[in-house]
């Protein structure tokens, strides 16, 4: 949980604009707060992520700016959902998916602390994707 | 999880604008999706909620429109945090708090499914506050 400087026990509000201004890396989520054993992460994204699957957890996406597409490989076949700014979506556990943002997007994620960005199984990780469980934000 | 009409297995994106347009009640959260055993809820708020505490869970607030204040009774004393649009905050478990939005606000909440809006302990509930664990959104 983000806290007042010098006092680890007092949580403080976070302005998303300041959070996004504090980093430039793409596909490299920053942890803005925690809720019990879950993280709230924000990320700047552009281009295509990697096909991956979280076997044991759903993954929540909220698009704060730009437009995000998520390709899904479901039992019924492959489909793409499109999330304009101000849209949200939950990828169910066990569903292989690949986020994609040709023009860039700013997103907020909610998932259990320790969840890797590339899931439990994934295709070869391209250089532009940060395989991480998130980085605490510094603001 | 919100799903395609007629197919309970296919989740679909939710546009926040449509979600907020679907209800008018104040202090009466609507569940827009679920993430494992957590809910994502949205609420329209105006005026003052009730002092209450969640003994066993943190509670996440994201302000999507307007401005929200949260009064907190912490061991060090009472304070108020102010969350302009685009700000987020987590109220730690066990901390008595009271949301307040004199000019109105639209908020998003993350919390475990079944978490009551008035917590585990609370002052007398005013008529304008819906004591609920959330209502599934209908859009």
Q: What is Rg of chain A?
A: 15 Å
Top CATH class of chain A: Mainly Beta
N- to C-terminal distance of chain A: 13 Å
Model regions low in confidence, pLDDT < 50 over at least 5 residues of chain A: none
Describe the structure.
Chains A, B: It comes from Streptomyces venezuelae. The structure is a homodimer of 139-residue chains. With 139 residues, chain A is mainly beta. Chain A has one domain: Jelly Rolls. The first copy, chain A, is 4% helix and 51% strand. The first copy, chain A, is built from one helix and ten strands. In chain A, strands 2, 3, 5, 6, 7, 8 and 10 form a seven-stranded mixed beta sheet that branches. The longest helix of chain A has 6 residues, at 16-21. The radius of gyration of chain A is 15 Å and the shape is globular. Chain A starts with 13 loop residues before the first strand and ends with a strand. Strand 1 of chain A pairs antiparallel with strand 7 of chain B, so a sheet runs across the interface.
Write the layout of secondary structure elements.
Two copies of one chain form a homodimer.
Chain A (H helix, E strand, L loop, with lengths): L13 E2 H6 L8 E6 L2 E11 L3 E2 L5 E16 L2 E8 L2 E5 L4 E17 L8 E2 L12 E2 L3
Parallel strand pairs in A: 2-10
Antiparallel strand pairs in A: 2-3, 3-8, 4-9, 5-6, 5-7, 5-8
Task: Summarize this structure briefly.
Chain A has 139 residues and is mainly beta. Chain A contains one helix and ten strands, in the order E-H-E-E-E-E-E-E-E-E-E.
């Amino acid at each position: 949980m983000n806290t007042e400087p010098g006092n680890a026990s007092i949580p403080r509000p976070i302005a998303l604009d300041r959070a996004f201004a504090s980093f430039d890396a793409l596909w490299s989520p920053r942890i803005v707060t925690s809720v019990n054993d879950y993280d709230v992460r924000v990320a700047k994204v552009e281009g295509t992520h990697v096909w991956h699957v979280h076997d044991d957890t759903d993954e929540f996406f909220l698009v704060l700016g730009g437009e995000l597409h998520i390709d899904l490989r479901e039992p019924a076949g492959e489909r793409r959902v499109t999330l304009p700014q101000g849209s949200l979506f939950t990828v169910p556990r066990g569903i292989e998916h690949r986020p994609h943002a040709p023009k860039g997007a700013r997103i907020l994620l909610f998932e259990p602390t320790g969840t890797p960005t590339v899931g439990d199984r994934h295709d070869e990780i391209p250089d532009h994707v940060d395989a991480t469980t998130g980085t605490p934000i510094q603001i």
